[in-house]
Each structure stands twice: as structure tokens, then as C-alpha cells.
Specification:
CATH architecture of the largest domain: Roll
Number of strands: 19
Radius of gyration: 36 Å
Structural class: alpha+beta
Distance between the termini: 20 Å
CATH topology of the largest domain: C8orf32 fold
Number of helices: 24
Strand content: 5-15%
CATH class of the largest domain: Alpha Beta
Shape: elongated
Largest sheet: 6 strands, antiparallel
Oligomer: single chain
């Protein structure tokens, strides 16, 4: 008796007829689901062109016209490459590469001739799914792409299946196929030798015009910043969490001012051993930083770092650097001392941090001289400059007016008096240098949102900040943040509070702390939403740490716990191969057992009927058909002849019918139960499992 196949689909030979409209719609649905995560990264014209290629193909099918000729298709390919190059400035890299892949895959619609071409589009869709992880590796995206893979597998079966009426069956088989592959994938994930760079560690392309870190600070060059709320890093603090006023995350020191911009010194990376600043061991803060990919080399640390991982290097100004750009999410454990100070400044450093272009010095000389003339010493000069910012009508805004190219800082100090942290830090640093006080600009982040669900601080790109460090002989380098004078709300409550106050039309500095907290208080629904966001971010963070962040060190630690720490790369491959083979054998045995047990309900109850006849001395021969066996049994058991004949006839009508009626199967089941007295049927159900009836 022929048993139903578990997976009933065939592979196209390439000789199939032209796919019908139904097949193309199913193919397009799978392709659209694969491309959808890329919509925000693709140019609008490419998204429209992708839809246009599909509509073009449907028009060709509806009007029974020929597909575009070879010259036209080649011309479209050349045009695509040209437009991608015009848009990205290159045809290499992540963004341009993904755009070319999507565009060429969409063009494949124009030359689909048979089902083999359809299968190629499915395989290209699998590749597009994989490229989604180049932009994000979140658990939410992973779950979505898993569903897409199941649906693409269903589309592949659907295209190769002669009977397309059973959509539920196709989806079920696809989910089962993907489910069977997951244990094998898990073994490869855990045991396959890890490489230093992650699978998805491809550098991102340009990101311009957003709040965030840069190694060049040019205040006044733009009049509006695009606020980017993407996460820069997460900080897991051991012990007491620093207050908002203490959350200065040191990134890069910019000590050279030229062309109206602050820049890092040419020899910024210092591979020599840096002296550890003086600090109190009782005030040490231990923490870990989970950095997002930035394609940059600097690492952020709580001001001031005193202990670093061996994989990082000291940069000028007690900053931390990597040797190569960070192209994947990375975690670092470090220690900082908030009150640490340096007690020495070389003559070369003194000259470096007081250097200022003559044109800039001349433009600010009168302002600095006026403020310095009111001062007794360096400390009082600093206080006078800060008071100048506090009392002379300076305001904090993310939409400052543009400044001229000749003397932008003089224009800011005397005319506009509107800006954000870069304006105030830059102006303050220059005023210090004009007076001969060593000063430097530090770029990093300030603040960060506390996540009570995961108990860590989330720092976003919009938290980017700049401040000044001034050298005082008796104290060393001291952090001075002029923004805290103009807009203390920015430092104490964060940029989000500043946005809320601005929306309410509140003048900065006009409210006390209680009034500010009341003004920025969120309603109950907003707090519920925030808790949901915190919860999801905590889950994602765990996903990053334990799954995406599973690297060489984590693998070695796992192997040691399993007693396999001595395995080399070749040994790991052999172990993974043997484990996969064992899993495959076990899965095969389970599938065969499952296949044997999954019978048609009519076949199941007919076997129960034959078992009862066997107890009555009538054994069915191996080559004996149901009608012949039923006739022989009825003659041998005349007292049951009518029942045997009726049950046999019902079974033949059901089993060989094109469409099996549920009511007929139910009547057949009741007839068998009546013949066996119910006893044999119940015993069989308990032993073999209830059939699908």
C-alpha cells in the first residue's frame, strides 16, 4: 500500500512551461517580504523600480507579449550600476552592494522563462534575507527573518507542487523543514571555529548630518542638527550608579584648532605606557561598555579611566582607542575614577594646549582682555568667563544661526549668542588659550537613560556632548562644562527633558528642580510604553551578549565547561560533523516513525477490522485485496457475512475515492467499532494513538 510522502514536492528540470500568474504572485510576495527590512536603506527610486519590474512582468503575462530583449536587459543593468554609483559614490561596500543585489534580483523578473528561473529568484531572496543582518542583529529582526525563511521555503514548495490547493500543508511542511534544520544550525553555531571578526562585521557607509561623535568639531557650520536617537553604547555599572551630573563619557580629546575647527593631533594614538592619574581607590567605578558598531577607533569611558583591557591603547588625554575600526558590537570591561587628576604637564604639552591661530587670537583678544582684567588669577578668570555666559543673554538651542567663516566665535560671543554644547565648549576653550591658560576640547557623551529593567545605562547618539578641560597647576586637568551654566537642565535631566521644555515654551533657567520634574513628568500611558521599551531593549541586550556576541573567547569558555577545551580548529570541525550526523540520524528515525504512524483514518480502522477477523481465524494474505478478503471472510463466517461485506464495501468506496468525505469516514469508523464490540477499537487507540478522524 502506498504511503503518503512527508514532503511532497519535486525539483524543477528547467523544462517546465512559463509560470502562471499565480506562481509569480507567490514569488513576488516572498521577494517583497525579504526586501522589506531594506526599504529604509534603499533609495526611493530603487524601491519604485522594483515594483515597476514586477508590474512590467505582469503586463507581459497578461498581454502575452515577449520578454524584453537581451540588449534592453543589458542596458537596464548598466543603468542600475550607474545610478547606484551616482547615489553612493561607489559600487562597493554594504549599502551599494545591497542595492545592487536587490536591483538585479528584481530585474530577474523580466527574464523568467520557466520554474527554474523562479527558483533562482527564491535563492536570491534567501541572500537578501542574510544581508539584513548587516544593518541590524536585533532579536526582533531575527524572528521576522525566520518567518520570512519559512515563507520562502513554502513558496519554493508551492512553485514545485502540482496541487496548489493545500496552502496549509505547504506552510506546515516548510515550518517543519526549518525546524529540523535548527538543531543542526545550533551545533554549527556553538562548535564551528570562530573568527576574530563577526560574520556580520562589515563596515557601514557614510553617516552625515546627525548628532553624534566626530573627530572634527566645527561650531557654527550648520544651523540645525538632525537628532539621532540610535544607541551608541550601553553601560553596566557595578555598585552605585553615577548621577546624571557625573555621567561624562570620555571619547576623544581635540587639542588642535585650525580652519575654524577643532581636530585631534596628528600623533593621537600613543602606544607608550600612560601614567595612571592620581585617584582614590575607594572611588573606583567598575563597569562594562557594550559598544555599537561605529567604524571608528575610539572607545568611550566614564571620566576618567584608570584601568583598561589589554586590547585597547591609550590615546592623548587619557582616552581609549582600538587598533582597528569597530565594525561589530563589542564589550569592554574597565574601571574609572571620577576624581582622578594628572599632576604634571610637560613644556611641549603646555605649548600645544595654548596654541591658537593669530587671526583667531586677534578676533578674541579684546573680549578675553576685558574678562581677564576683572580677574585676580586663573580661577577667577574662569569664573568670570562662566558668568559672562550666564548673565549676558546666551541661550542653548539645537537650531542656532549660521556663523560666518572669518571670525565665527567672535560672532557667536558678541552677536548671535545662541548655540549648543559645541559652541560653548569651543568659545570657552579659545578664551582660555587667548589668556595663556592650557585648555583642550573633549568630545564624548553626557547623560544616558537608566534602564530599570536591565539595570544599565543606555547612551544614545543624541547624548553627544562637548566640554572643556583646563589645566590648573594645583589641581591638574579640570573639567569645565560651560553648557551647564547656560542650560543646567541639559546636564541634570538630559536632552529629552530639554526637548519637552522647549515644546512647552519654557525659558531655560526659569524653573527650579521641582518645577522641572513636574514639567517633564510623563503620563501613565507614556510610562507604560517606556517600560515596554526598556523590557524589549533588555531582551535585545541579552541577545547581543549571548548570541550575537558569541565569539572566540566565549566558545573557548563553553568548550572548557564541556571538557573539550583541548580541541583545535580541526578537532572542532570533526566534532561538529559527528554531532550533526548523529542529530540527522535521530531526526531521520523519528521522521520514519512518524511517517509510519500517520495513516489515513480509513486505513487505521480497516486494520482494526482485519485484526478482529484475525482473532476469529481469518487472516488476510499479503497480496489479497480488500474485496477478495472480505468475500472469503464472509463465506467463512456466515453469521457475520452481512457486516463483513458492508464494512469492506464502505472501506473500498472511501479508500479509492478521489475525495474522502468526513461523514463517510465517521460512518465507517462506527461500523468497525460496532463489529469489534468497541473493545478492540479502544485498546488499539490506547496503544497506537487516536487516528485523524
Amino acid at each position: 500500500m502506498k504511503k503518503p510522502a512527508l514532503f511532497n514536492f519535486s525539483i524543477s528540470t528547467g523544462l517546465d512551461p512559463l509560470p502562471d500568474q499565480q506562481a509569480l504572485v507567490a514569488l513576488s510576495l516572498g521577494f517583497a517580504l525579504a526586501v522589506s527590512p531594506h526599504i529604509e536603506h534603499l533609495p526611493v527610486w530603487l524601491s519604485l523600480a522594483t515594483v515597476g519590474f514586477f508590474l512590467w512582468r505582469m503586463w507581459i503575462m497578461r498581454h502575452a507579449t515577449a520578454i524584453p530583449g537581451r540588449l534592453l536587459r543589458y542596458g537596464l543593468v548598466i543603468a542600475l550600476v550607474f545610478l547606484v554609483y551616482r547615489h553612493y559614490g561607489t559600487v562597493l561596500g554594504r549599502d551599494a552592494g545591497v542595492a545592487l543585489l536587490v536591483g538585479l534580483s528584481a530585474m530577474k523578473y523580466l527574464e523568467i522563462r520557466d520554474f527554474r528561473d523562479c527558483m533562482l529568484v527564491v535563492f536570491l531572496s534567501y541572500m537578501i534575507v542574510l544581508t539584513s543582518f548587516l544593518y541590524s542583529q536585533s532579536m526582533l529582526l531575527g524572528g521576522y527573518l525566520l518567518v520570512v525563511v519559512i515563507l520562502l521555503t513554502a513558496v519554493m514548495q508551492y512553485l514545485n507542487h502540482s496541487d496548489r490547493s493545500s496552502l496549509h500543508k505547504v506552510l506546515k511542511n516548510s515550518a517543519l523543514l526549518v525546524g529540523l534544520a535548527m538543531p543542526l544550525g545550533l551545533v554549527l553555531f556553538l562548535l564551528f571555529p570562530r573568527v576574530p571578526i563577526g560574520l556580520f562585521g562589515l563596515p557601514g557607509d557614510s553617516h552625515a548630518g546627525m548628532i553624534g561623535m566626530s573627530d572634527v568639531v566645527r561650531p557654527g557650520s550648520i544651523n540645525q542638527l538632525n537628532e539621532n536617537d540610535d544607541i551608541a553604547f550601553r553601560a553596566d555599572i557595578e555598585g552605585q550608579v553615577p548621577s546624571m551630573q557625573q555621567r561624562y563619557w570620555r571619547g576623544i580629546v581635540l587639542g588642535e584648532y585650525r580652519d575654524n575647527a577643532w581636530r585631534k593631533h596628528k600623533r593621537y594614538l600613543q602606544t607608550l605606557r600612560m601614567p595612571v592619574p592620581e585617584h582614590d581607590e575607594e572611588n573606583i567605578v567598575n563597569y562594562s561598555i557594550l559598544l555599537e558598531p561605529s567604524n571608528e577607533r575610539w572607545v568611550f569611558s566614564l571620566d576618567l579611566p584608570v584601568k583598561k583591557p589589554s586590547t585597547l591603547y591609550w590615546g592623548r588625554g587619557q582616552t581609549l582607542m582600538t587598533t582597528t575600526p569597530m565594525v561589530e558590537r563589542t564589550r569592554y570591561d574597565m574601571s574609572s575614577a571620577p576624581g582622578a587628576r594628572f599632576n604634571s604637564l610637560s613644556e611641549a604639552e603646555h605649548e600645544r594646549y595654548t596654541a591658537i591661530p593669530e587671526t583667531v587670537k586677534a578676533s578674541l583678544q579684546d573680549i578675553a582682555a576685558d574678562l581677564y582684567g576683572q580677574s585676580r588669577d586663573t580661577r577667577s578668570y574662569i569664573d568670570n568667563v562662566l558668568e559672562f555666559f550666564r548673565s549676558e543673554g546666551f541661550t542653548y538651542t539645537l537650531q542656532p544661526p549660521l556663523l560666518g567663516n572669518d571670525t565665527p566665535m567672535r560672532q557667536f560671543l558678541l552677536e548671535t549668542r545662541k548655540g549648543y554644547c559645541e559652541h560653548y565648549a569651543s568659545a570657552f576653550t579659545l578664551l582660555m588659550r587667548v589668556a595663556g591658560v592650557p585648555a583642550r576640547l573633549v568630545a564624548g557623551y553626557q547623560g544616558g537613560e537608566w534602564n530599570p529593567q536591565g539595570e544599565y545605562i543606555t547612551v544614545r547618539q543624541s547624548d553627544a556632548h562637548a566640554w572643556t578641560e583646563v589645566w590648573l597647576d594645583e589641581l591638574g586637568w579640570v573639567r569645565i562644562d560651560p553648557t551647564a551654566v547656560v542650560a543646567p537642565e541639559r546636564i541634570e535631566y538630559g536632552l529629552e527633558a530639554l526637548r519637552l521644555l522647549a515644546e512647552q515654551g519654557t525659558t531655560l533657567g526659569s524653573l527650579n528642580n521641582e518645577q522641572i520634574r513636574a514639567a517633564i513628568a510623563r503620563p501613565a500611558m507614556q510610562m507604560l510604553w517606556n517600560r515596554t521599551v526598556w523590557f524589549l531593549d533588555d531582551i535585545n541586550t541579552s541577545w547581543y551578549l549571548w548570541v550575537i556576541g558569541y565569539g572566540k573567547d566565549e566558545q573557548e569558555s563553553l568548550l572548557k565547561r564541556l571538557g573539550l577545551g583541548s580541541l583545535t580548529g580541526t578537532g572542532l570541525l570533526i566534532t561538529a560533523f559527528v554531532t550533526i550526523m548523529l542529530i540527522a540520524v535521530v531526526q531521520g528515525m523519528l521522521l520514519l516513525r512518524r511517517r509510519g504512524r500517520r495513516q489515513e483514518p480509513a486505513v487505521f480502522w480497516y486494520k482494526r477490522f482485519c485484526s478482529r477477523l484475525e482473532e476469529m481465524g481469518q487472516i488476510r494474505g499479503q497480496s489479497e485485496g480488500p474485496r477478495d478478503f472480505g468475500l472469503r471472510a464472509a463465506q467463512a463466517l456466515p453469521g457475520y457475512g452481512s457486516q463483513i461485506t458492508r464494512i469492506t464495501s464502505m472501506y473500498v468506496n472511501i479508500h479509492y475515492a478521489d475525495k474522502k468525505e468526513d461523514t463517510a469516514i465517521l460512518r465507517f469508523k462506527q461500523a468497525v467499532k460496532s463489529f469489534t464490540g468497541g473493545r478492540l477499537g479502544r485498546r488499539a487507540e490506547q496503544k497506537e494513538g487516536k487516528p485523524d478522524a
